[in-house]
Design brief:
Elements lengths: L5 E8 L9 H5 L4 E2 L4 E3 L5 E3 L1 E2 L8 E12 L9 E11 L12 E3 L8 H21 L8 H11 L19 E3 L15 H8 L6 H5 L13 H7 L7 E9 L3 E10 L2 E10 L5 H11 L13 E5 L6 E5 L5 E2 H6 L7 H20 L12 E4 L4 E4 L5 H4 L5 E2 L5 E2 L6 H6 L4 H16 L14 H6 L2 E3 L7 H10 L10 H16 L3
Antiparallel strand pairs: 1-3, 1-6, 2-5, 4-8, 6-7, 9-20, 10-11, 11-12, 12-14, 13-14, 15-16, 16-17, 18-19
Helix pairs in contact: 4-14, 4-15, 9-12, 9-15, 12-14
Length: 506
C-alpha cells in the first residue's frame, strides 16, 4: 500500500526596498506556479514549474524563502516535515526574460510498502524542492552577501587530507591573491614579466617568437554534425572489442576500424539504449569538435556511424593508450616532474595549434586527454561523454547545464564569456592536476560559491611537490584580467624551455 502525503507550499519574499524605495515590489512581478498551493506529493511522472519574473524596471536583490510543509497521513507514527529553501532573486534593469530552462522531469521510482513508502514519498517531496529551486536559475543557493563574508573568513585556512593529492595533507588549499593597485580582480603574484627571466633566452627568445594577442571573438560556423556526416561509414566497419569506461548512458570501447580491408586500432565512443535522443546528438556534436584536424597531439575523429539511434564515433588510438586522469589516479604510474612537464608541453602544443586556427577547446582537463604510458605521448581529445564518465567534475548551477565549474575562468562563470584566455585558465588548472596526480581542484569550495571565491581573489595554493617555476606558470594562467594572462604559444615556449632545463640536471 502506498502512503499518500499531503503538502502545502508558500513563497515569501521581502519587500523592504533598496534605500527605502520598495524597489522589490517594482522589480519583481507576481510569481507564477503551475501547481496548486496544496495537494498530494506525486508518485508518478509529472512536471512542476515556478517562474519568478522580473519587471525589468529596476535592479534589485530580493531575499526569498520557499516553505514546503509535508504532512504525514493521520494515524501513522510519522512526523510532519517542513522544508525551507532560501534564495536571493536577482533582477536587473532592462532584463525581463525569464529563464529558458524552467522545468525538470521527475520519474517516480519503484514504491515500497510500509516504512519504505514514507521514505520514497519524502524523496518525492525533496525532488519537488529541487525542481522549484533549479528552475529559478537566477537565485543564489545561499544569501550571497553573507556567504561571501563567511568565505573570506574561512577559505584561507581550509585544509584537508585526501589520497592522490600530491602530499597536500594539512596544507592550505587556497591562497588569496594580492590585488594590483587600481585593479579589482587581477592577481599579481606572478606576471608574464616575472616569467621571462626564468625561461627567455638572451637572444631570439621563443616567448617573443610565439607571443600573440588573445582572440576574444571566435566564430565556428561549420556545423559539427556536417563534419561527422562527411566521415560516415557503415556499421559493419567498426568492431567494439573491449569496454574501457562506462557511465550512466555512455560507453568507451577499444576496437578496430576496417577501411579498404585494413584494420586500424581505434577508440569508440557511443551511447547506450537508455540514452535520450538529445544525449545521442550531444555526443555527435561534441565528438565532432576536433574533426578534420591533423596534429600529433590531438585525438581527432576519424570515422562515424550515424545510421542508428546509438551513434558510434571512432578515434585513432594505440592499443595501450589510457585516459590521462585514469593514468594519474590509478596509483600504478609514478611520473617524475620532468615527465609531467613533458605532458604539459604536448597539451600546450595542441592548444596553440587550436588557437592558431581560430578554435577554442573550452574544457582542457586531464579527463579529456589520452596518454601512452610507454612513451608518454599525450593527445588532447574532445569532451564528448566527459560529463557522463566523470560526473564529479561537472556541476549544474540551477540552469540544467553541467559545466566544469572548477576549471572555468572567472569571466566564464560571471558572464559566460569564452576566449583563448579562458582556455589558458583551464590549462593552468590542468597543470595543477598533473602535479597533484589527478587531485580535485577547489575540492573544499561549494560549486555555487566558485564564482565568488575566484572573484574575491582566491586561487589554488602551490602543491608541495611543485617547483616554483611551474607554479609561476599556473599563477599567470589565473590572473583576473584576461588580457594579462599569457597566450597558449607563450606557455608552450615557457614550458618547453623549462623541460629542457630540467633535462640539463639529469
Amino acid at each position: 500500500m502506498v502512503l499518500q502525503l499531503s503538502y502545502s507550499m508558500e513563497l515569501d519574499y521581502d519587500v523592504v526596498g533598496v534605500q527605502g524605495l520598495n524597489a522589490e515590489a517594482v522589480a519583481l512581478l507576481r510569481p507564477r506556479v503551475n501547481v496548486s498551493a496544496k495537494g498530494e506529493v506525486p508518485v508518478t511522472l509529472q512536471i512542476f514549474r515556478i517562474r519568478i519574473p522580473c519587471s525589468g524596471l529596476v535592479s534589485a536583490e530580493i531575499p526569498m524563502a520557499l516553505r514546503l510543509n509535508v504532512s504525514a497521513p493521520p494515524g501513522t507514527r510519522y512526523n510532519d516535515t517542513t522544508l525551507i529553501l532560501r534564495r536571493n532573486k536577482i533582477c536587473l534593469k532592462g532584463v525581463e526574460a525569464p529563464p529558458s530552462n524552467d522545468s525538470i522531469r521527475l520519474e517516480a521510482g519503484p514504491l515500497m510498502n510500509g516504512t519504505g513508502a514514507f521514505y520514497i514519498a519524502a524523496i518525492c517531496a525533496c525532488a519537488l524542492i529541487l525542481v522549484i529551486g533549479s528552475v529559478t536559475s537566477a537565485l543564489y543557493i545561499r544569501n550571497s552577501k553573507a556567504r561571501v563574508q563567511e568565505s573570506q573568513k574561512t577559505l584561507p585556512c581550509c585544509s584537508y587530507s585526501a589520497a592522490g593529492t600530491g602530499g597536500l595533507t594539512g596544507s592550505s588549499v587556497l591562497v588569496r591573491v594580492d590585488h594590483r593597485p587600481g585593479s579589482a580582480n587581477s592577481g599579481s603574484y606572478a606576471t608574464i614579466a616575472d616569467l621571462e627571466p626564468l625561461y627567455a633566452r638572451p637572444c631570439g627568445s621563443r616567448a617573443s617568437y610565439y607571443a600573440a594577442s588573445h582572440v576574444t571573438n571566435i566564430s565556428q560556423t561549420t556545423d559539427p554534425c556536417d563534419k561527422a556526416r562527411a566521415m560516415a561509414i557503415p556499421r559493419s566497419a567498426l568492431y567494439c572489442r573491449s569496454l574501457v569506461q562506462e557511465g550512466t548512458f555512455g560507453r568507451v570501447y577499444k576496437g578496430t576500424l576496417n577501411v579498404a580491408g585494413r584494420d586500424q586500432e581505434v577508440i569508440i565512443k557511443t551511447v547506450t539504449e537508455v540514452a535520450s535522443a538529445y544525449q545521442a546528438s550531444l555526443l555527435v556534436v561534441e565528438g565532432s569538435q576536433l574533426a578534420g584536424l591533423v596534429h600529433g597531439n590531438i585525438a581527432s575523429l576519424v570515422a562515424a556511424c550515424l545510421d542508428s539511434p546509438c551513434p558510434l564515433l571512432a578515434y585513432s588510438s594505440s592499443s595501450n593508450e589510457l585516459n590521462l586522469k585514469t593514468y594519474l589516479t590509478d596509483g600504478v604510474h609514478h611520473p617524475v616532474t620532468r615527465d609531467l612537464v613533458n605532458v604539459s608541453v604536448q597539451v600546450a602544443r595542441a592548444g596553440a595549434f587550436l588557437h592558431g586556427r581560430g578554435l577554442l577547446h573550452r574544457d582542457i582537463a586531464a579527463r579529456n586527454c589520452l596518454i601512452e604510458p610507454s612513451n608518454l605521448r599525450v593527445r588532447l581529445a574532445d569532451a564528448a561523454l566527459a560529463r557522463d564518465l566523470f560526473p564529479q567534475d561537472y556541476h549544474c548551477l540551477g540552469d540544467n547545464e553541467n559545466r566544469p565549474i572548477r576549471w572555468m575562468a572567472v569571466e566564464s562563470l560571471q558572464h559566460n564569456q569564452y576566449s583563448t584566455a579562458t582556455d589558458v585558465w583551464s590549462f593552468g588548472v590542468f597543470l595543477w592536476e598533473l602535479v597533484t596526480m589527478g587531485g580535485q581542484p577547489y575540492v573544499e569550495v561549494d560549486p555555487f560559491e566558485m564564482m565568488a571565491c575566484l572573484r574575491d581573489g582566491y586561487r589554488l595554493v602551490q602543491p608541495r611537490p611543485c617547483p616554483d617555476e611551474l607554479f609561476a606558470v599556473m599563477a599567470v594562467c589565473w590572473l583576473g584580467i584576461a588580457r594579462d594572462r599569457p597566450t597558449m604559444p607563450q606557455l608552450l615556449a615557457y614550458l618547453q624551455e623549462f623541460h629542457d632545463a630540467l633535462g640539463g640536471f639529469i
